[in-house]
Amino acid sequence: MTTLYLTHDAFLRHDTGPGHPERIERLQTVRNVLSTPDFSELQRSEAPEASIDDIVRAHPIDYIKMIQESEPAGEGENYVRLDPDTVMSRGSFEAARRAVGAGIHAVDRIMAGEVQNAFCAVRPCGHHAETARAMGFCLFNNIAIAAFYARNQYHLDRVAVVDFDVHHGNGTQDLFWSHKNMFFASTHQMPLFPGTGSITETGVGNIVNAPLNPGDRGSQFRDAFESRVLPELSTFAPEFILISAGFDAHIRDPLANLGLVEEDYAWATKKLLDIADKSCSGRIVSMLEGGYDLKGLGDSVSTHVRALMDGGN
Prior knowledge:
Helix content is 38%, strand content 15%.
């Protein structure tokens, strides 16, 4: 099984400032892990810049222009805060465009039959970005744009996003809410930022939320995955699966209170690969979201990407 690894140096130029948890060192950690001999078989490519036409698949043009114009010029102004959590520096707009471009390029390579699946190590993350609102460290909703692109460009009927970040992917849910052929499932801690993700939030029957309680460990996570997420995903029968791969449910993570370990992420990845093998010829794109303890992030990415490389068996 051939796995594509996409990243770019531009992601290191998205500077969120001193003390911010979504920091440059996160991407450096991922790159260090995936540069070891264990991952020598990865196909590697640089993330291209998405076009504005690609980004408008999820966001209105006025919002995109606002993001572009918010980037600081660098003349005495190093950072701009779009909200208390979401920061831009010089280079953030290019990074955001390349984060979108990574997902689109991964979809193209998979649909062309050149690779089986892909992991996109990108910054800024995306799953909190709503239709016209940046929040939760996110500027554009990278994974939702890739999902809409896959559906429209390749005339697919059913595209799914599964999100195991510890924070609910409110932006993806917002963008998919009324699209019956776009499926979104999320496991996440609740209560926790952003405050959405209850089991009663179902869209047009295409949204599946499986909230976890603070203190839950891998057994509760696996039960939620097996009892709620996987059956609904199987019934949906996706023609393409995308993963919002946040690793902040890890027991070491400072921003939440769940107790997952690396093996839980490997298990979840293999379960999704099994469904992808049955439903969509193994087509999966995984995109990095959260994960703020560097050791926990590195170990979790290692097991996740290894599972993608090995397949579901």
